[in-house]
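queue> holo job accepted (protoporphyrin IX containing FE)
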Amino acid sequence: MTTVANSQNKKVKNDSSTWQFLCSVKLAVIIIIILAVACILGTLILQMRPPEDYVNRYGEGLAKFFSAVQLTDIFHSYWFSFLLVLLCVNLGCCTVKRWRNTVLQIGFLVTHISIIMILIGCVIDMMLGEKGGVNVYEGKSVDYYLNRADYRKIPLDFKVYCDDFIIERHPPNYKLLTFVKNKELEKFIPPKVGNKIKIPGSNYAVTVKDFYPDAEYRAEPINTSKEPNNPGIYVQMLESNHVTAEGWLLAKDRNWYNDPKRDLKIEYLWADNDDAYEKLAKAAGEIAKPTLDVVIEGKNISRSAPVEVGKSISIDGTEYVVEIKQLALDYAERDAPLNEQSSDNPAVRVEINGPQGKETRWTFSKYPDYWDKAHQAKYKDVKLTCYVPDNFSQTANSLRIVQNKDGKQTLSYLSKGKLVSITDWEVEKRYDIEDTGLQMRILKYFPSHSIKKEVVESTGSHEGHNHGPGEHIGTPAIFVEIEGPRGTVADWMLANNPPKWYPDKNFALLYEQAGMAIKDYKSILRVVEDGKTVMTKIIEVNDPLKYKGYVFYQSSYDPEGERYTGLQVTRNPGLIVVYTGFILLCIGVVFIFYVKPFLRRKLKKGQKVEEYYSEDEIAAEHIE
Amino acid sequence: MDFTLNITYYVYIAAIVAYIVREVWRAKTLRWIAFGVFTGGFVLNTILVITRWFEANHAPMSDKYESFVFFAFTIAGVYLIMELVTIFIARVHESRLGIVGALQSLLAVWMIHSALNTDSTIKELPPALQSNWLVVHVINYFVSYSALSISFTAAIIYLIYRAIYRGRAQEIVMSGSDSQLRKDVTFDKLAYISVTIGFPFLTIGLITGSIWAKGAWGTYWGWDPKETWSLISWLVYLAYLHLPMILPKTKIKKTLAPIILSIVLLIAFPVVLFTFMGMHKLPTASDSDHIYAE
Ligand code: HEM
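queue> job finished
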């Protein structure tokens, strides 16, 4: 702007008070302070919201005032831009005025010029730069993106394919939450084996003593008394010295086991008296058959018939014909052969033929009105119920392990309803089962058992459900000891189970999964121009793809199906200017505050301070 | 972990006491004792940072707990380096730096106390934070904040001395007589020196933050509240650095200038702390992408 050669000109400039003011530090400080205040306002007042938001929050009057002086979008307002321009002018003028060719000036010049560069770079980006985003489905491509400000489609002269999109997750994280009820105090403590941790503000202390990375509950019967109140036996089935099946049979609970391969049912039966014993051990007995009852409401008609698949029952006095289509012992396994189903939820499928055509229904023996509630029935007056006896089975052969109070314990083998053999049994001994090639052994007998739930370390490498093969994620468990006013208690806690309460009901622990944090998301992008692949790159957050001045950032993804990748697209032609400014600014400040003081000390020797520094500098930098 | 954290806390408290004792009975041995106690706390703090680094498998400055511990670490580190410089380079053994030491250990105590009350479970880094720029950015900021905190404590002490002694030259930190210092260092000058040490780090922190944001989000500046407030802190210190050039030209009395500058520092550091810890209090915070410290 000024040429020092023309001293006349320089004098004029120096005398002009506007010029003086434009170069002055006073203006600089004023601008800096106003900028700071503007920035503060820009974070205190909501920015770039729809007008009604302001009216709701600040009231009609203030809202009007805010939009009038552009306080609703400070950082893009005219006055803010004007301030930045003024700042540039101020910097430029003072730099020009102060220009002296000395080493010590380098920092000052570099910092001031770098700030001008940064601001100019930003302006270039604002005027010529582009910014937007686009979602690319896996396997698809785009040749455009949507402008950020107005969602305009902006064409690209190349195509970007997303060949794959990958989300990597961290293994799940577990945390231990402590809760003191009367203080409403929640605190996380590390769920790691270690020292005692006192819970602040309470007199509880928690120690994690042991840890299983993968644990499970195992229900194990234990014996509680010699009285046969709740008998159970542990049975093993063997075939040429190989255990083919083993487990507990509980007389008053799950007391049978089906071997569908051999059409064999094994039952454990307890007889309270001799009569009952005789029946259970010897009488093949008539096993009750399942029956179906049909009631026509309002007509006082009812029919009962055995469940035989394929049989049709015509209901006299009505036009209905009920055909029995299927019997299932366990509705959930209804497609499996009948003798492979356990009789958990027996049901019968029927077809009702009537004046309005066919209607298909399932009736459940345990939930008689379930179907009617859950479905719209055609023939509302037809009520169906079925009865399937608990011990009903389709198996041809059965092995009955029968015991009574007096110590009688026998093993009967029945085939097709006929008693084939009967023997006494003892614990630990093996017995051949009539022409099946099988052997049976009773390993334990508990006259009165109760089930103890126990946490044990999982051993088998069973695959879970929600993850790929080979990456089995177990359920961890910790053994915690709680000290408190009622002494010390200790127990295992399995992750994601209900909280564990201390006996005084005032302190609880919760051990739970903290979610599987996303480790990274990546897209394999391919740029195709004129039909040719010119570039491929796996982009991830912090590592974008750059092509022809465009930069593609990994910024989001389809939160539901992970089917597409969300890209942010930018073009920043001013970036090089901004970054040069950044580098210069760093060099400049380091020079001024770290290099210059040492240089100054060196240069100063033998020279007068005043020859080197202006008054301002002396004042500013406390030079004496 | 919790155990070492507790010990660190008490050692830092002991450092406050030691520095106060040293300030009252100004003996050379006491200076070393105070220095030693604070150094002890610093060493424990270093262990905390390093073990956390190994346990978490990322630079330990990515959540609230980690940044509290790390900030305490840099506060102690920067102050101790400064004290070493006064002893071995400026060769001042007789100084009033003890008051600053006491206040700096107080600040470290505050940070460790905050850490004690923060959830310290290790969290996995979200993808955006997995960047080396983040590490450079945060280290620069905490070193800068620590130096700037010294300017804050020095400014407080300066103002208190000025209030007590009313202009008599009693507010000297270090005296030049038997040292390499050519002139006495007063508390306002100490404050200025600390700002000149901290400001370059603040600038580099701001710039590396911007470069990191560009890599992660595609924008180097987005007027996000956290960004804006770090700019505000930078602007306030910038104003402080330019102010001395205009004060002599105004009608303000020469003796008042250091008071005005100290008051600016008194405002500036709370701005820095607000940028560090107060962002969630802003009405605009919900719009923010990276208020990670909450
Ligand atoms: C990192 C940022 C900055 C640093 C480190 C810095 C540093 C300096 C230094 C060391 C001086 C004294 C130069 C000398 O007398 O040799 C100075 C003067 C000055 N600075 Fe800055 N400055 C910065 C930013 C700014 C900004 C943003 C503005 C404008 C708003 C500004 C305006 C001025 C002005 C007007 C002078 C006075 C020049 C004169 O007396 O003619 N500075 N600055």
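queue> The CA atoms of residues 214 and 368 of chain A lie 41 Å apart.
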